[in-house]
Amino acid sequence: MKRKIRTARAYAMALALAATISMTSCQTQDYSTDLTLNNGQEYIQDNSRVKATRSNITATRTVFKKVQAIICDHVNISPGQIQLGSIIRNDLGFDSLDFIEIIMSVEEEFGISIPDEAIDSLITIEDLVVFINTNLSSHPAIFTKLLLILEEQINISKGQVDTYSNLNTDLGMDSLDFFELIIAVEEEYDIQIPDEDLKNIVTAENLVVYIAAQIEQQQPPVDPPVDPPVDPPIIDPVPPVDPPITDPDLPADPTDIENWLKETLSMKTGTPTFMLTRSTRLIDDLEMDEVDILDFKLAVESHFGILIFDDRAAMLLTIGDWITYIESRAPGRPLSTVLQ
């Protein structure tokens, strides 16, 4: 019953808007099927125009265009070869170093951090675009749910929606689409959105912020916790601290990543440091086996305080690959100028 009432509300609103269009057309002799709301936002009524607008969604999207530009800066391919459905590692011909450099550039461009466990889940360009937009939203969980609603109710794929996409001009939603979206949001979050508030919901992020505010209003006030009385702490004398134990087999200078790696590899393989360059391959040139690589990885993790997954380590083939990866993950280390 509730669904029928809300659906009737949507159609009633749509008919009222259509009537407004008809009256306006008769008065002005303008047979346009566009509708302008109080905030100056145009909503489209003609279905053929909606389809045309939606087919051009990608062309107006900022995040996707920036991702295309970043990839083209690192790999010699044209923007037209990069589509939302492109499989990053198969279709675009990336090697491990290209992929690491692109992830670092995305983090810098959008001011976000992409953890290692998230990188492994980025299979297509759409996955990357959705991850960026979700992290740009003020409420990522609500934005993620909104993407699902748009995909299921309005047939707009997740990768076509930027955080600040205009629901009408960017996503091609007509008035009926808009009210169906509002109804789906009301049902999902058990909230009511008054008609007078609809004129302020222009972008996807407008709707996300509105939902978050309604959810916050629904939560009952919480009394501040009353802490029980606490006895004053008994302070023991500070025990003496032993000096840190250093590994004499590892180089002492922690600030120079390249020299540290070369010295460590020299000690582990017996190869003179002057023969080691950034292009030196650990397996082919230094004849290191799986046990040697694992031992070297553990030494790097311990020295730089980072965690390197085994599948990621397998992608680091040369000394230069290791330097680039450590520079991107070890805070406080000086970055080389290779990627600048």
From TrEMBL:
It comes from the Bacteria. Residues 58-136, 140-215 form the Carrier domain. It holds the Pfam family PP-binding. 4'-phosphopantetheine is transferred from CoA to a specific serine of apo-ACP by AcpS. This modification is essential for activity because fatty acids are bound in thioester linkage to the sulfhydryl of the prosthetic group. The keyword Acyltransferase does not apply. InterPro entries: ACP, ACP-like_sf, PP-bd_ACP, Ppantetheine_attach_site. It is found in: Cytoplasm. Residues 1-28 form the signal peptide. Pathway: Lipid metabolism; fatty acid biosynthesis. Keywords: Cytoplasm, Fatty acid biosynthesis, Fatty acid metabolism, Lipid biosynthesis, Lipid metabolism, Phosphopantetheine, Phosphoprotein, Signal. The keyword Lipid metabolism applies. SUPFAM superfamilies: ACP-like (SSF47336). The modification O-(pantetheine 4'-phosphoryl)serine is found at S96, S175. GO terms for molecular function: acyl binding; acyl carrier activity. One of its GO terms (biological process) is lipid A biosynthetic process. Gene3D superfamilies: ACP-like (1.10.1200.10). One of its GO terms (cellular component) is membrane. Belongs to the acyl carrier protein (ACP) family. PANTHER family: ACYL CARRIER PROTEIN, CARRIER DOMAIN-CONTAINING PROTEIN. This is Acyl carrier protein. It comes from Alistipes timonensis JC136.
